[in-house]
Each structure stands twice: as structure tokens, then as C-alpha cells.
Design a protein that fits this description.
11 helices; two-stranded antiparallel ribbon; alpha+beta; Aminopeptidase
Length: 339
């Protein structure tokens, strides 16, 4: 497919980036892999992670703490919007805008990735009732979100990365853009909420940070499921670009863009476990797992009703990939969906 020229390129802003996207953290995994080639990058990456370390209690679904250097593990990416505008709207408590769970199989060096629609109607243990899954973070932060995902998919969530994506645009720009296939014409707001500021035509093209963000967040012509799929494709595009030889020199800018926008319970030493997934002979092996569902309204409120068969199939696939079973869990996730 030929490259399509964009109609309008948004000027880069120096103001605070307020939108988020759950696509940034794998760059740090890539950066850590490259850090073996330079002491400076290694020190820089270590500084970033040491400042972001925020441990939580271990998963109730694990009898023993996992070792990412030897075990299959899962990692939950949590994207939140801490902007003043969203904070005022939600009573000062940030909801997750995007959730993406990755499982890592050590033997196969493979990754399975599932996006969970933010409006999914699920049981939130922290509140004790069914509501949108993105409310869990407002109720109890990353721990409440982890508990909710474990309840939904009945698998352990070993690690989390919470990201405020103020830096997303700067990261994509630091990589000189990413190549993505735009599925249809898009007119979206930019990171400063200027309406119709980003205008893209369909086709394979290189997007800058503003344009990539607009593509990832739009859902006017499709659904939360398609939105999640687009986010996964953008994630893969970022990782592909970041693993090129020419991108190594840009890692300092990438890590500076991340800055204070991240919290994780992964120690810097544990991050080294992910290098094998990047450097294996077959390259990155990422497979998407879909959660199907349909739009619904309950007492006048919009929700995304997950299909129970789809959720059960996802549970089986993820458990197989992690090599865990329900007997490894203290409790079942059967109550995660609404009746």
C-alpha cells in the first residue's frame, strides 16, 4: 500500500501533554535490552525505574512469588488521565482510560496481549458491585484494578505498570514517528482539546505523536474493541521502530520523556528478564487475544457487555500460556461478569 500524505500536520506543542495511551512502557523494555551496549543508557534506565518503583501486595492467585527470570508471568499496563479537566469531572480521582494485559511464556519466548475495553461491565471487588472496569482505579488505584482483572480473567496478575501518558507524544516524536495503517479518514481533537485539529486520510503512513495519539483514541466510527485493536497495532509499531538500529541513539530522549509519568512494582533487575523476548531469533512474537461483546444500557448508563463465551475462551488461552489452572487460585473469577 502506498504512503498517503496527511492533510494537516499538527504543530508540536511544549505544553503539558494531557492525553494518555497504554502503549509506552514496552519501549523501556526495549531500551533495557539495548542498554547492555552502553553504560550511560544502563544508568539512565536504572534511574528511571528506581524512581518509579512502587510495590504492591502479591497476587492472591499465586502460592509463591514468581521469578520473571525463570517463570511465566503476566503484566498489566494501566493508562490513566491525571489532567485537571478529567480530575474535576471524576471528583479528583483518576479512572483508567486503557487496560492491556500481557502474558509472557518463558519457554516459547512468546507474548499474548489482550485489551480490556474501558467501559466493560464487570464485578469490581473493591466496590463490591458491578460497574465499568475503569472505575476500579478511582476506587483503589492499581491494586483495585489488578484485583478486578484477576476476578474477570481468573489468572494471576504478577506485575503492573501504571502510566500517565503525558509523555506519549514526545516519545513517538523522539522516534521520528511510527508507520501505521490508518483504517479510515479521521478528524480528532489534539492533545490540547482543539477540535478537529488532527485530520488523517486512510492508508499506510508515518504518524507523529499527535497523529498517533488521535488514531489510538478515536472511536467515532467503530467500537471499544476496534479501539483496543488499534492500540495494540500502535504498540507493535512503536516496538518495531524502537528495535531498529537507528533508534538506539534516541533512547535517552525516550526515557526522559517517560520521566515521572510511571509507577510499577517491577524492580530494575527484574526488567532484564524481558530482554530474551526481544532478542530471540524469530523477533518479537506477540499474539492478540480478543474479548468480544456488545453495547448495552443499564438504567440509562452505557456499558460494554462482554460475551461470556469470549471471556471463557480468553481465560483458557491465557491460563494455558501462563501454565496455570484454577486450582492454583484461591478463588474463582466466575463472578466477574454481570448476571
Amino acid at each position: 500500500m502506498s504512503t498517503t500524505r496527511r492533510i494537516y500536520r499538527v504543530k508540536k506543542k511544549k505544553k503539558k501533554r494531557r492525553r494518555l495511551l497504554l502503549l509506552l512502557i514496552p519501549l523501556l523494555i526495549v531500551a533495557l535490552g539495548a542498554s547492555s551496549y552502553g553504560a550511560f543508557l544502563f544508568t539512565k534506565a536504572q534511574s528511571v525505574f528506581d524512581g518509579s518503583y512502587d510495590p504492591l501486595g502479591g497476587s492472591d492467585k499465586r502460592k509463591e512469588k514468581v521469578n520473571p527470570m525463570a517463570d511465566n508471568i503476566s503484566l498489566l499496563f494501566i493508562g490513566v488521565d491525571d489532567s485537571e479537566k478529567r480530575g474535576e469531572k471524576n471528583g479528583g480521582k483518576s479512572r483508567s482510560d486503557a487496560l492491556m494485559l500481557a502474558t509472557f511464556n518463558k519457554k516459547d519466548k512468546s507474548i499474548k496481549l489482550v485489551s480490556i475495553p474501558r467501559d466493560s461491565y464487570v464485578y469490581v471487588p473493591e466496590g463490591g458491585y458491578n460497574t465499568k472496569i475503569n472505575h476500579a482505579h478511582a476506587m483503589g488505584g492499581p491494586q483495585a484494578t489488578i484485583d478486578t482483572v484477576e476476578e474477570l480473567l481468573d489468572i494471576p496478575v504478577d506485575y503492573y505498570v501504571r502510566m500517565n501518558f503525558n509523555a506519549f507524544i514526545d516519545v513517538v516524536d523522539a522516534l521520528d514517528g511510527i508507520e501505521v495503517d490508518v483504517p479510515y479518514e479521521i478528524r480528532e481533537v489534539d492533545s490540547n482539546d482543539k477540535k478537529r485539529a488532527v485530520h488523517l486520510q486512510p492508508g499506510l503512513q508515518t504518524l507523529d505523536g499527535e497523529e498517533a495519539l488521535a488514531l489510538a483514541r478515536t472511536r467515532k466510527q467503530d467500537s471499544d474493541i476496534q479501539r483496543g485493536e488499534r492500540q495494540q497495532e500502535i504498540l507493535k509499531a512503536i516496538m518495531t521502530k524502537a528495535t531498529t538500529v537507528g533508534a538506539v541513539s534516541k533512547y535517552t530522549d525516550v526515557m526522559e520523556a517517560v520521566g515521572d509519568n510511571m509507577k510499577t512494582n517491577l524492580k530494575f533487575s527484574e526488567m532484564r528478564a524481558f530482554i530474551d523476548y526481544i532478542t530471540n531469533d524469530s523477533g518479537l512474537d506477540i499474539e492478540s487475544v480478543k474479548l468480544e461483546g456488545s453495547d448495552s444500557r443499564i438504567e440509562g448508563v452505557y456499558y460494554y457487555q462482554l460475551d461470556e463465551t469470549s471471556v471463557e475462551n480468553a481465560k483458557i488461552e491465557l491460563k494455558t500460556h501462563l501454565d496455570v489452572s484454577s486450582k492454583d487460585s484461591e478463588h474463582s473469577g466466575s463472578t466477574a461478569l454481570a448476571e
